[in-house]
Design goal:
3 strands, 25% helix, 3-stranded antiparallel sheet, elongated, 1 helix, alpha+beta
Length: 65
């Protein structure tokens, strides 16, 4: 058995993980529990209505389809 990324050096592996984290950071699905607004942001920000009761879901957590 061959691990898919076993040929990468530790530095390359870390860069690969950082690029994944970067993608996740720029794709956060936000849902305001107060005004039910939905939007996608690059950071965990408060809603425009001023509420901080916002649910944050990284887009990669959504199942396909
Ligand atoms: Zn809101």
């Amino acid at each position: 058995m061959t691990e898919p990324h076993s040929y990468l050096s530790p530095e390359e592996l870390q860069a690969w993980r950082l690029s994944l984290q970067e993608a996740n950071r720029n794709n956060i699905f936000c849902y305001c529990r107060r005004c039910h607004r939905e939007w996608v942001a690059s950071d965990q920000v408060a809603c425009l209505c001023g509420s901080k009761d916002v649910e944050y879901i990284a887009c990669w957590q959504f199942p396909d389809g």
